[in-house]
Design brief:
The chain is an alpha/beta fold. Helices cover 46% and strands 14% of the residues. The strands form 2 sheets. It has a 7-stranded parallel β-sheet, sandwiched between helices. Helix 4 links the parallel strand 4 and strand 5. Helix 1 crosses helix 7, helix 7 crosses helix 13 and helix 12 crosses helix 13. The longest helix is centred in the N-terminal third of the chain and has 19 residues. It binds uridine-diphosphate-N-acetylglucosamine. Uridine-diphosphate-N-acetylglucosamine binds next to helix 1, helix 2, helix 5 and helix 11.
Length: 352
């Protein structure tokens, strides 16, 4: 009997990381993979470097959708993905996380009647103003195989009435990737930033809720600059953030402003920082797994278990940030890292 062919849909930076670990597991299980890149992230720093550094397979197709409004971006992806799925006829489709690429992949597959698996199912932050929360809820509604990182995520799905037989707790591909790729010695990676281990803050900021309102973006930059008066703040800005800062002519004095870092460098910065200040879902988890306390630049986090265990502290308002960063300490118990998610997912996909 021919092996089941699995289409994996990626488009944005955090998905490249998760897909890399699943690709390895699919190859080890002898399941042929058809990787499709929507092109949501397209430049060297946001996409090309990740494909190279993580040895991702050559995409079977790249839709090159680029940046646009949510409606236009998602519609272009949906059209391109439907065409790819009709041409390549996969036996199952896998989508990752909560981006517009996730939702488009989910809609295209289910409308063609192709079984759909969602990696990171059941994550909820409870804030429906976030595009990511809407993408999560809708994708989980249509997926056949809901692959959860934790029992807390599985409980969210049960509460929403999802049939128990569709839910599987498989572990976390992002944690597996983090443990596989984090440099044991971060020091060589710190040289370009001019900082020493334990003596700087690593910051990232890119969520629409934080960057699209000029007052709020200015307030976050002021709060980070206030911290920068006491200890260096390495700020690796997403292109959307850099563009907003430049467009609004905002000051970044007191910050060590850089573009997006490559994956290993990001992990080295997470490991070596005294505290990480971020609104990224991925960076929150990676820093905590590597033993660094995190202040989350948001009102809520979908990593509710990291918040209750004390690894992540929410900063609902920018003026809370300096105090929270000054007082952050790592909790005594490490973050549980769980089983190898890649092989668990590959087994479920092989069974159909
Ligand atoms: C997307 C995801 C978010 C994820 C993030 C990771 C959605 C709704 N959001 O947000 O969940 O955390 O990716 O980075 O899907 N840009 C570039 N070069 C690129 C890509 C983007 O310059 O390669 C700039 C463009 O100005 C673009 C902006 O970034 O308009 C935003 O990109 P977009 O894909 O719309 O969303 P992200 O903010 O990256």
């Amino acid at each position: 009997m021919a092996e089941r062919r699995i289409m994996t849909v990626v488009g944005a930076r955090p998905q490249f990381v998760k897909a890399a670990m699943l690709s390895r597991a699919l190859a080890a299980a002898g399941l042929p993979e058809l990787l499709v890149h929507t092109g949501q992230h397209y430049d060297e720093a946001m996409s090309g470097a990740f494909f190279r550094d993580l040895s991702l397979p050559e995409p079977a197709a790249n839709l090159q959708v680029g940046s646009a409004s949510h409606g236009v971006q998602t519609a272009r992806m949906l059209e391109g993905l439907e065409r790819c799925m009709q041409q390549l006829r996969p036996d199952a489709v896998v989508v990752f996380g909560d981006t517009n690429s996730t939702l488009a992949g989910a809609l295209a597959a289910t409308k063609l009647g192709i079984p759909l698996a969602h990696v990171e199912a059941g994550m909820r932050c409870g804030d429906r103003r976030m595009p990511e929360e809407i993408n999560r809820i809708l994708t989980d509604q249509v997926a056949d195989l809901l692959l959860c990182t934790s029992t807390a995520a599985a409980d969210n799905l049960r509460r929403e009435g999802v049939a128990a037989g569709r839910i599987h707790v498989v572990g976390d591909l992002m944690v597996d990737a983090c443990l596989a790729f984090a440099p044991a010695d971060p020091v060589p990676y710190l040289a370009p930033f001019g900082v020493s281990p334990g003596r700087f803050i690593f910051a990232t900021l890119h969520r629409a809720e934080n960057t699209d309102d000029p007052q709020r973006l200015r307030a976050w930059l002021n709060a980070l600059a206030a911290i920068g008066r006491n200890e260096p703040v390495v700020f690796c800005a997403h292109p959307r953030t850099t563009a907003r800062i430049a467009g609004l002519g905002l000051a970044t004095d007191g910050l060590r402003l850089h573009g997006p870092a490559d994956y290993r460098t990001t992990l080295a910065l997470c490991r070596a920082a005294r505290v990480v200040a971020t609104d990224s879902g991925g960076v929150q988890k990676e820093a905590a797994v590597l033993g660094t306390p995190v202040v989350v630049l948001r009102e809520r986090s979908e990593w509710t278990d990291l918040v209750s265990a004390g690894w992540c502290t929410l900063a609902p308002r920018p003026d809370h940030l300096p105090h929270l960063v000054a007082n952050s300490k790592p909790p005594s118990s490490p973050v549980p890292t769980g089983p190898d998610a890649g092989s668990a997912i590959a087994r479920l996909l092989a069974d159909g």
